[in-house]
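Please describe what follows:
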Amino acid sequence: FEHLKSVIQGPFHSLERLEICNEQAKAMDDEGVEYFFSVYLDEEHSNFLASWQMPKLTHLKLRNVLPNSPLRCENVTSLCIELLYNEEDLYMEGLKRLLRSMPKIKSLSITLDAKFISFEDDDSDSDEDLVDDTPVLPSLTSLELKVGSPVFDETLPRFMPLINTRKLAHLPPALQNEYPSNEKEFAKCVSAIFDPPTSGTPLDRPFELIEDFALDTNRFEGSAKTFERIFTSMPNVRHMSLAIYQLSKIYILGHWVRAGAFKHLRTLRIEIPQFPSYEFPLDEERFDALFSNGHCNEFERMDIRVEPLHCVKKGKARLESLLGDKLHWHEISE
């Protein structure tokens, strides 16, 4: 930012897209000791950035950078925040101030893939309006949340209340990349994202309007309980994409469907990445509940993408008998 001060003299009347990235993860102090750069700009640089007038800015990306002051870009509709590889606490109040300065955001992509301890409260902030974790993006309809390893107990539970999940129509995807190293941590992530809000009732659905959903569980097995939390939280989903790995235990159970899950599902896309195995995931009746007893009357198409090293004959034949021409099978050659 020091180099920009002599260049930037006035407002950015025509700027529509802006990316600010910090790729310098570490540095050496005078004694040769490595330390991590902070994602937070210092006060001087943060105030300088906050002075920029960007009335036409619609797309903003912040990678390993967070300003301490609200920005002057109130017409931003798409915000991407990527926080990687640093080891410092994040301040919830500062994040809320930043988000509130862009009330027209419709699409938010946020990556938490760092060694955060948690979101901490900023004691220097005395604004009573910022005390509670309440939704701060009134126009948000699409959330892309990428959760990395490790995300401790207080991170997602502090972040999710900022999102009014009942207004979201797109959740692509909820979880991906590297995850915490055990099933308990995976279950905590799922609970933080998909459980009804504490102010609601057990019957509340946190994602009532979601129509498009994708899930990549990577190397986690999951369980009936965790997948029930996910799949029963979005009764109006129409298009769903799943990646099934060697250890994955993704199933759709009949009593979820009979209770109203997937009643509007139209398309299901399943990708089975390459892995050596004597068992093919679709040999089992993982998704048969969708196609029996007429519960999913709007279903139109099932797309299967299979990578090499699978014996697919049995699973393919079984699905063809269930779906007929609604099944579209793609075997990807090396």
Observations:
- The first strand starts at residue 17 and ends at 21.
- The helical segments are 43-50, 92-100, 155-159, 183-194, 224-231, 254-258, 313-323.
- The first helix runs from residue 43 to 50.
- The two ends are 46 Å apart (CA to CA).
